Task: inverse folding
């Protein structure tokens, strides 16, 4: 096999790996949704004040809206997680959609409510409404049009799937201003069904495992995408000298 064919095969394997990971994560998302619906769907539809609590009593809210931080387009380790970053398939943030970044000083001093923590649920409130993602790791900050829900007395994995399940209810809170917008003060009044311990434990164990698997796959996908984007242009431009490679 020639060197150029060998490198082409490597790149094809990388692209194939990226596609496979995407399909695996789609399947895992469907599994989590299916298990959730099987256990809770019929109970959620009939939730009342007897077996439910307002969302606001179950969470703390990280809310830095009201003032836009100084930012730039130069990539660094402090991306702003705006609506665009949340507007993608799956439960994990797609950092490729981040377009603005803050410097370290701004990151450390600007945000009055601090930053999201592991497994906080990020929610968009303006534009593309009720887009949701888990915050994983320690990368990023939120400001305009995005808030974080930090669970207090309920599983974040249960609440995430719950909010996805009732997304149409959340969209109904649209106040219909110049652009689509929902108020957090309206959302937190929504009743959330509080499941029995055994039901929650059964779902939580499954959903936590699935979420960690998806997150690990996303991290691997980012590595493969970086490898593809590094190798392919060099191979196409001739910058990668394959003639000197011994196969």
Result:
């Amino acid at each position: 096999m020639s060197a150029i064919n060998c490198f082409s095969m490597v790149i094809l394997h990388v692209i194939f790996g990226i596609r496979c990971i995407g399909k695996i994560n789609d399947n895992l998302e469907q599994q989590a949704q299916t298990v959730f619906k099987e256990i809770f769907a019929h109970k959620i539809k009939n939730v009342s004040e007897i077996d439910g609590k307002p969302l606001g009593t179950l969470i703390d809210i990280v809310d830095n809206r009201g003032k836009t931080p100084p930012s730039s387009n130069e990539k660094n380790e402090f991306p702003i997680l705006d609506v665009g970053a949340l507007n993608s398939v799956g439960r994990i943030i797609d950092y490729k959609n981040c377009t603005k970044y803050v410097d370290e000083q701004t990151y450390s001093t600007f945000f009055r409510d601090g930053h999201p923590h592991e497994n906080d649920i990020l929610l968009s409130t303006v534009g593309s409404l009720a887009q949701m993602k888990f915050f994983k790791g320690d990368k990023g900050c939120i400001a305009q049009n995005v808030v974080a829900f930090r669970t207090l007395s309920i599983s974040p994995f249960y609440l995430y799937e719950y909010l996805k399940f009732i997304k149409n209810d959340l969209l109904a809170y649209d106040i219909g201003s110049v652009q689509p917008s929902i108020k957090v003060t309206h959302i937190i009044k929504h009743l959330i069904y509080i499941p029995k311990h055994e039901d929650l434990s059964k779902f939580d164990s499954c959903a936590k495992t699935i979420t960690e698997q998806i997150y690990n796959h996303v991290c691997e996908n980012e590595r493969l995408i970086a490898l593809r984007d590094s190798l392919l242009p060099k191979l196409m431009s001739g910058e990668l000298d394959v003639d000197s490679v011994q196969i």
